[in-house]
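User: Sequence in, structure out. Go.
Assistant: Echoing your sequence, followed by the structure tokens.
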Amino acid sequence: MHTAEVALASRQGRRAYLLLSALTRELATATQRYVVAAGDSLWIISGRPEVYGNPYLWPLIWQANLDSLSDPNQLRAGQRLKIRSNPTVAEVVQALDTAHQYAGTRVRIGEVQDASP
């Protein structure tokens, strides 16, 4: 990023563009690995702060692992999952929509609900 800033400041627009394009591709494909533990579900995993911090984003994990996970309810302890580090806004919206359709629920993004004592 810094190198691209320097290139841009030096009026090397093409070089800055190429550097930032490479960074964009790298961010779009960045993944981390997660090893499934006993009792885990995609809901639990996606709700972990180090993953997505939102259980409704479990379809992102399912989508990233379709090659090894045809059914989101069939996790195995020890299974290795890919977690996409930087999903796009469109992918997040689609994941939320899928999660709500799958569960038969409807929650609005940003909605605050009262908690009963």
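User: And one key feature?
Assistant: The CA atoms of residues 14 and 46 lie 39 Å apart.
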